[in-house]
Amino acid sequence: MNPLASIGAVVLAFFTATGRVAIFAGRALYHVVTPPMHFRQMLRQLVDVGYYSLPVVALTTLFSGMVLALQSYTGFARFSAEGAVASVVVLSMTRELAPVLAGLMVAGRVGAAMAAEIGTMRVTEQIDALATLSTNPMKYLVAPRIIAGVLTLPLLVLIGDIIGVMGGYLVGVYRLDFNPSAYIQQTWAFVETLDVMSGLVKAAVFGFIVTLMGCYHGYNSRGGAQGVGIATTNAVVSSAILILVANYVLTESFFSK
Amino acid sequence: MSSQPKISFEDVHLAFGPKQVLRGIDLAVDAGESLVIIGGSGSGKSVLIKTVLGITRPDKGVVAVDGEDIVGASARLRNTVNGKIGMLFQGGALFDSLPVWENVGFGLIQSGAMDRQQARVKAIDTLARVGLDEHVSTLLPVELSGGMQKRVALARAIADEPEIIFFDEPTTGLDPIMSDVINKLIVECVRDLGATAVTITHDMRSARTIADKVAMIYEGQIIWTGGVKDLDAPDHEMVDQFVHGRAEGPIQMAVRR
């Protein structure tokens, strides 16, 4: 095959997929903001996405905070700047690590589950059945999941911020012999509202990305069990990539001089 | 008496990519009539009824319900039309996260016709109509046998007493006795509701039990229509071969070519 034609085919496929996702996102947002709302579905998704993701987000941010304290201590010791550990931990956790790690963990846990559940509903004709039972599948399946993702991920990240800073504190005080009150004082002195808020805004965007990708790939899955498997993989991979890209764009918009 | 058919297809064409699935379907179903569509796998039977439900959209032609063209219908008209239709899907398409009663009452709840308590009572009544006890109503679909799942799917299709009912391969995967039970339930339900029924099947015993009129679809075209009494001696070679399940004949030659 002509190499130029191959490149062209890849580019066309990329733009086709982008267009499809954009149309799907537009339809999803339309159903998010227009009645009727399926409150039972929304409640179920809030619990699934938020409550059941709490342990995995808590563990991830706890150990990340602990490792961050250890690593920054050993690095800064070369420049006799060990005193900056608390500020590095709090800024890194609130601005970057908590939202990105929570986003990635939720993508693995929730995005995959959404793609598998909706994909199975697609291949077993349950989505077609919804359409015959006076129910718009986008409104019943997709809108509640997106609302749940956008609302709960910031809450998870807020909790993750606190647990991550606590992880740094535990290592700093009990492993590296920092003074407890000095560590806390330095943490408070350096963290600003923008640091926390930027992380929460990122979390809401990542929640949208994860649920959108989970729903999109599940909704468009084809071909039985294999199709559902592919949809699940694609949901996680595309969520992870988009989270990292969006993280850069948001960081630029919040913190670039 | 009005001569307007309940459902009509005029010159309906549909292609999936290069594959032409429907090639100019012309067919009419009168009110209160039970039409059975027979035909080989991949001949376009299921796709044809999905054009009425709005799940697939024809490339060309008219699909009308009560004389109104519904191809590309507005959301409001689509909702009205789908509200007249009940559908039994080939695999049941029961919602596996919901108990049986909620599956049966789903359309009643979502359309706002009843609250959950009323829908539950109606669902239990409808389950009794298809020979299922009240205790089944609290089970999940996965806890039921294949025959029971078909009965629940049938109950869901008739719960809101539709004017039109589609049955997609209602006896596939069932033993002969359960198939006969389902066939007789279909006949009873359609007769009691006075509904217009369209059934898709390969099962000639089903066709003989359910049909007033039979149509055969082959390579996306209706090649024969006749009364159920004409089924054993049809004036068409392909129909004769299909009905009698002979390996030799014009259909096989077409496949070999």
Descriptive notes:
The complex is a heterodimer of chains A (257) and B (257). Chain A has 257 residues and is mainly α. Chain A has one domain (20-30, 38-251). Chain A is built from nine helices and no strands. Chain A has helices spanning 3-33, 39-50, 54-76, 85-123, 126-132, 137-174, 180-190, 193-219, 224-255. The longest helix of chain A has 39 residues, at 85-123. The radius of gyration of chain A is 21 Å and the shape is elongated. The model of chain A has no long low-confidence stretch (mean pLDDT 94). Chain B is an alpha/beta fold and 257 residues long. Chain B is 37% helix and 24% strand. Chain B contains nine helices and ten strands. In chain B, the strands form two sheets. Chain B has a six-stranded mixed sheet, sandwiched between helices. In chain B, helix 3 (100-110) runs parallel beside helix 5 (146-158), helix 4 packs across helix 5 (146-158) and helix 6 (176-193) runs parallel beside helix 7 (204-210). The longest helix of chain B is centred in the last third of the chain and has 18 residues, at 176-193. The radius of gyration of chain B is 18 Å and the shape is globular. Chain A binds chain B through residues 121, 124-126, 128-129, 131-135, 140, and chain B through 50, 53-55, 79, 82-83, 85-87, 89-91, 93-96, 106-107, 110-111, 156.
